[in-house]
Amino acid sequence: EVQLVESGGGLVQPGGSLRLSCATSGFTFDDAVMSWVRQAPGKGLDWVSAISWDGGSTYYAESMKGRFTISRDNAKNTLYLQMNSLKPEDTAIYYCAAEPNAHYTGSSYSYWGQGTQVTVSS
């Protein structure tokens, strides 16, 4: 059974920080490209960030550069997203997603979590 379970979301004021986690099981985590994708209210899916199987390469959407940091702990099968300098427009459901291919360079993913809500508001 493949599982991806996000946690760490919540309500934060503009300029604040949150650290999201995604605990996984049921696939070979250290052979998977991992990503964060978000969906704002009434909007479609927007790609946020991705990380290579070993954490050696990271990628970010332009609006997240310098504010968000993606990381992974392969010993714990867990993906993280450190979110700093949060803005109201960051309000969204944040999903972690996995593709079990260490050399994957595409834009779709085989496995998805249920998401965690992030709300940035005064």
Task: Give the arrangement of secondary structure elements.
Layout: E1 3-7, E2 10-12, E3 18-25, E4 33-39, E5 45-51, E6 58-60, E7 68-73, E8 78-83, E9 92-99, E10 111-112, E11 116-120
Parallel strand pairs: 2-11
Antiparallel strand pairs: 1-3, 3-8, 4-5, 4-9, 5-6, 7-8, 9-10, 9-11
Query: Measured on Cα atoms, how large is the radius of gyration?
Result: 13 Å
List unreliable stretches of 5+ residues.
Answer: none
Fraction of residues in H or I helices: under 10%
The shape is: globular
The end-to-end span amounts to 40 Å
- N-to-C SSE series? EEEEEEEEEEE
How many beta-strand elements? 11
Q: What structural class do helix, strand and pairing data support?
A: mainly beta
Give the count of helical stretches. 0
Strand content: over 45%
Question: Mind summarizing the main beta sheet?
Answer: 7 strands, mixed
Mean pLDDT: 96
